[in-house]
Amino acid sequence: MSFDEFAARKTREAEQADIPGLKTDFDRAPSRMIAIGNRWTLAAFDGPFYLSPATDARYPACNLVFVQSRDGNTGAKNPSALGGGETDKHVIYEGLSRVAADAVLAGAETIRGGRLVFSVWHPELVALRSALGKPRHPAQIVATLRGLDVEHALLFNVPDIPVFVLTVADCADLMGASFASRPWITPIVMREPKDIASAFESLKGAGIGRISCVGGRGIAGQLLDAGLVQDVHLTTSAVDGGEPDTPMYRKPLPMDVIVRKRGCGPEAGIVFDHFARRD
Predict the structure, then answer these.
(1) Non-local CB neighbours of 121 within 8 Å, separated by 6+ positions
(2) How far apart are CA 12 and CA 168, in angstroms?
(3) How high is the pLDDT of residue 115?
(4) Exposure b/e, 136-165, CB count within 10 A at least 16 = b
(5) Using CA of residue 66, residue 99, residue 32, residue 46, what is the dihedral sign?
(6) 181: burial class by Cβ within 10 Å (0-12, 13-18, 19+)?
(7) Which of 15, 143, 177, 214 has its CA 20 to 30 A from that of 89?
(8) What is the structure's pLDDT at 114?
(9) How much is the pLDDT for 237?
(10) Parts of the chain with a pLDDT under 50
(11) ω into residue 242 within 30 of 0, thus cis?
């Protein structure tokens, strides 16, 4: 599948999706938050979507986006099996959580074997991204310590979309030839595997001011432990499922729920929470 074919399929899926929308339980967003939206997103999301400013000028602002089953699992071979629903997929996951992002970050296992590129696809979200002054597609960031099949993964082979690879020296050497033939790929070599803060500092230096991280749990935990996350967007489904004992994070989040919304119609029982770092 070419990128044009992939993009056409994703756009068609977003346009044809039945999106019941959300209803707000409460909105306690602090005054520091940045509200975004257009007429379509304000209706589907039932209000503005909030962005936190970066808390440290050295690093990009960062959010995490996760779906968990009712019994708290986030691991699944097919994430849609967790039961997040069409509103979560098209309005939040492939929408508002990344519409203002300069880049989308994923761990190697999230993309391994996938023919995908992380972007926004619904025309209303494409229009909002343009209104926010962002290029059509965010840059792609992949974190890997074992290497990846650069030749066959779609997101590494779209010259118009910059890619950053967070890795260590041995792994960068392993993929060196593939990088050399793709000047749009920039390796960011960490001194040791958990040196994620220095990698974020390099990304900020490369012009990445806001990142949306879509998993997996390993990279999400590192970001939370390093204090690099300002917002967590967590959708909890109305059904049990997923791989047992796979919570998003094994520690209490050092955050408060500032917005809670609930699914409507066929998505009743789904809950969306926006967690934001405490002042």
Answers:
(1) 7, 10, 11, 13, 14, 90, 94
(2) 38
(3) 87
(4) ebbbbbbbbeebbebeebbbbbbeebbbbb
(5) negative
(6) exposed
(7) 143
(8) 74
(9) 97
(10) none
(11) no
- CA distance linking residue 91 with residue 221, whole number of Å: 24
Both tokens assigned to 20: 């019941």
pLDDT of the residue at 77: 80
Ordered by start, the domain boundaries in the chain are 3-277
CATH class of 3-277: alpha beta
**How is 129-179 classified by DSSP, letter by letter?**
HHHTT--SS-EEEEE-SS---TTT-GGGS-TTS-EEEEEEHHHHHHTHHHH
Torsion from C-alpha of 147, 153, 159, 160, nearest 10 degrees? -110
Beta-carbon contacts of residue 32 (< 8 Å; ≥ 6 apart): 52, 53, 279
Please say whether the beta carbons of 134 and 208 come within 8 A.
no
pLDDT of amino acid 41: 98
Both tokens assigned to 120: 């926004």
Which amino acid is located at 43 in the chain?
A
Give the chain's radius of gyration (CA, Å).
18
Supply the pTM of this predicted model.
0.96
